[in-house]
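Lecture 7 notes: from sequence to structure.

We start with a single chain of 266 residues. Read the sequence below before looking at the structure.
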Amino acid sequence: MSLAVSVEDVTPDLIRVRHYIANFYIWHTGGAWVLIDAGMAGADDVVARIAADRFGGAGPEAIVLTHGHFDHIGAFPAILERWPAPVYAHPAELPYLTGQAAYPPPDPSVGKGLMAMMSFVFPNDPIDLGDRVQPLPEDGSVPGMAGWRWIFTPGHAPGHVSFFQTAGRLLVAGDAFVTTKQESVYSALTQKREINGPPAYFTPDWIAARRSIERLAELRPELAVTGHGEPFAGRELADGLSALLADFDDRVLPAQGRYVPDGHHT
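Now the structure, written as tokens:
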């Protein structure tokens, strides 16, 4: 691995991989494993090395996506050429994963840091996974991940989902909220710990984003991992989510921006 990549066992069954400025995860039980999100461009090589080191080179049983932004689908299409794993996402994400629609453009006007100001260069084009991608099961189960359920958490993306293990109260939140200030280059590079809202430059629905964080906080997770930043657990996590929601308009909602609801910050 390189300085741009780190691999950490968050729990005995969950591996966190930090790949440049984004995280992806591997859930495993014995030899079987599931890839949760697919990192930034080049992540396929990282995944292959982990598979060789940890799973004898065997491919994933499934790939499940919190959403399809560029920093969560970087292993495609190369990883699908390597392994014939099915890909699952919320139905509302499928247009962005089958070449039918582009995401709303990033909004550099939200401010909050240099990463946000540079966001105009971030791609929002769809990818086309064709029939390799399919909707997550309607019953809320997660393919290959017994004991987990998916939770609809839109706002940052129309079909954003999070994954929750009821028994262990373990939450994979994607970008519904993150644990660093992703709009800041300094925070993104140093992984400065801070429970924050979804990356502002790529969040088109702030009303839905707030409701999604509320829904996740109501689950009272014991451990949360996110698309950006370090894991948070216990009282630090609970207090951080409570403070985030209490100060949502001041801490999370941008002071300006094309997607800020009318009547806010006027």
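Residues 13 and 29 are 6 Å apart (CA to CA). Keep this in mind for problem set 3.
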